[in-house]
Write a structure and sequence with these properties.
The longest helix is centred in the last third of the chain and has 19 residues. The radius of gyration is 19 Å and the shape is globular. It is mostly helical. Helices cover 61% and strands 0% of the residues. It folds into 2 domains: 93 residues, Endonuclease Iii, domain 2; 99 residues, Hypothetical protein, domain 2 (Endonuclease III, domain 1).
């Protein structure tokens, strides 16, 4: 009976906010974006398959995102691998070790405090499936070290939500500037306003723009 109720609640969330479950969902969203916005459609690489890059939906996923904040992919990857190798990519493991151990693995003192805050929050990760993205984000940002961007990324990649756009992401802001030929990089609020045009597939629009930004960087050979 409990399982049935959980499935029913998940189905309600799915009706309000799509869950990206398959390639069929992705293709439906891309078709909508192509028809909805002729300029955004120019950023869609017809030769490349857009994927959501599904992540786990528990403690480990959020901890990994915290570890990765303000670090290069390579540096974050090395630190995360040390954490995994020491069996500390779980709530119990973090709560049982002292900060010195985490510092020795490469975490900054500030991120150590973030890791403890996340572990101490004792979140019910299963309940997130029954909540809409705004509810999940509002709950997560109450935890020290988790900002809006981190919470949005969690909703996109761990909960597979179709309608989340991390407008504070600098790469997305720059992609919008280039694609829409703006004189200056748009503000978070400006990007957020523009993204409303892409609902209920804002997550897919973000994937398209990240891909577009990467191709532009490679083509021009410069960093913005």
């Amino acid at each position: 009976m409990i399982a049935s109720n959980a499935r029913a609640k998940t189905e309600i969330v799915d009706m309000i906010e799509r869950i990206l479950k398959s390639d069929k969902d992705l293709q439906e969203g891309l078709k909508f974006l192509t028809e909805q916005d002729s300029i955004l459609s120019q950023a869609i690489d017809k030769e490349k398959k857009i994927t959501l890059r599904k992540r786990s939906s528990g403690f480990s996923s959020l901890l990994k995102t915290i570890v990765s904040q303000q670090l290069s992919t390579a540096a974050a990857g090395k630190i995360w691998q040390r954490i995994v190798d020491n069996g500390l990519n779980n709530q119990k493991g973090i709560l049982q070790v002292k900060a010195e151990t985490l510092l020795s693995l490469g975490l900054s003192r500030q991120k150590c405090s973030y890791a403890y805050a996340l572990a101490s929050a004792n979140l019910n990760y299963h309940s997130f499936r029954e909540m809409n993205s705004d509810q999940v984000i509002n709950q997560l940002i109450e935890i020290k070290g988790i900002g809006k961007w981190t919470a949005q990324i969690y909703c996109m990649f761990s909960l597979e939500r179709s309608n989340v756009f991390p407008s504070g992401d600098l790469a997305l802001q720059e992609a919008v500037r280039i694609l829409f030929k703006l004189k200056e990089r748009p503000s978070e609020k400006e990007v957020e306003s523009r993204a409303e045009h892409w609902a209920p597939w804002k997550s897919l629009a973000a994937l398209v723009l990240w891909d577009f930004y990467g191709r532009e960087r490679k083509r021009k050979g410069v960093l913005w």
